[in-house]
Design a protein that fits this description.
alpha/beta; Rossmann fold; 2 domains; 9 helices; about 20% strand; elongated
Length: about 325
């Protein structure tokens, strides 16, 4: 039969693990060491940024985005939106009548009493108003962004107060693995946006070009619905582009790492240039300026788009002209 240990027997202080147990733990230790070396070789994570005081960063980012929005003033002809500012000759059927200007025009034309107002005297009002912005955040959710994800989430959540004041719309695109994903279309429901931010998991690769193009498409759709909005594309990244546009898993694995990184950067720069050519303002927020390769990519994107580059922990950097 199977021998049973005597529960009343004293435990020997001299008892040591058997040779098989020791050999097993040595193998586990070696495996974990090799696994750690493998991941450090594959991902080559950049040096993590130092902890930052998020409060001052929020103030700087808020100022940067307000600068990108400009004075938020657009002119409108006809409708009742905004403050009446001036008048102009109508093109076709008048959409409204600026009464005081119309009377003055009739008096200048007739120069006699009684005053006669004709269709040729009618002037329509010109309105101005503080135009809202549509801000599309493109958030890098790759492995290398994990250490700064708290800053990113709190920054976007903190800026929502300013967005509410100006009745801006905000959308969210996530960069992850081989394709970008539109998490939230432009909305004024900031609670919904903050909820989506809280569910973002930071891991995987960085399809930078795909994300920029997806954000651009969402902004163009919003501008088509509301031509008076100010479209702004905000890219939050450390610049570590490593997935070319339109790349799937099999083609990604067939490419040498240096070749796919080069292609990924070139595709991202082309996408940023398209943003600038279409007259859309672009703001790049680099979360880790100590990662030199990523910083250079961020600078290239700013130059290509004609946009602004903000370095977390350092401030605004104006891209130099080539």
């Amino acid at each position: 039969g199977i021998p049973h240990a005597d529960p009343t027997a004293p435990i020997s202080k001299e008892a040591k693990p058997s040779s098989k147990v020791r050999a097993f733990f040595r193998r586990v230790k070696t495996f974990l060491k090799n696994l750690s070396a493998y991941y450090s070789l594959i991902y080559k994570l950049p040096e993590p940024p130092k902890p930052l005081d998020i409060g001052p960063e929020l103030v700087k980012m808020d100022r940067l985005l307000r600068e990108a929005c400009g004075k938020r003033v657009k002119s409108l002809v006809g409708g009742r939106k905004g403050r009446r500012w001036s008048w102009r000759l109508p093109k076709g059927k008048p959409r409204g009548i600026h009464l005081a200007a119309t009377i003055r025009a009739a008096a200048k034309r007739t120069r006699r009493a009684p005053l006669e107002i004709g269709l040729q005297d009618v002037l329509e009002p010109l309105y101005i108003y503080r135009a809202p912005a549509t801000i599309m955040f493109i958030l890098d959710a790759s492995d290398s962004m994990y250490l700064t994800h708290h800053l990113v989430r709190k920054a976007v959540s903190g800026l929502c107060h300013d967005f509410r004041i100006h009745r801006d719309k905000v959308g969210l695109v996530i960069l992850k693995n081989f394709n970008a994903k539109l998490i939230q279309k432009p909305t004024r429901n900031f609670s919904l946006l903050e909820g989506e931010l809280g569910r973002v998991v930071f891991d995987g690769l960085t399809p930078l070009a795909s994300g920029i193009l997806l954000g651009l498409r969402a902004l163009r759709e919003e501008v088509a619905r509301n031509p008076h909005t100010i479209p702004i594309l905000v890219l939050v990244t450390d610049g570590g582009a490593n997935v070319p546009a339109s790349t799937d898993f099999s083609s990604f694995n067939r490419l040498p790492s240096e070749e796919r990184d080069r292609m990924a950067v070139e595709d991202a720069v082309r996408a940023a240039r398209t943003v600038g050519e279409q007259g859309i303002k672009m703001v790049i927020i680099n979360t880790n300026p100590k990662y030199r390769e990523g910083l250079e990519v961020s600078r290239e994107l700013a130059r290509a788009s004609g946009g602004l580059l903000y370095l977390v922990g350092e401030g605004l950097e104006m891209p130099s002209e080539d």
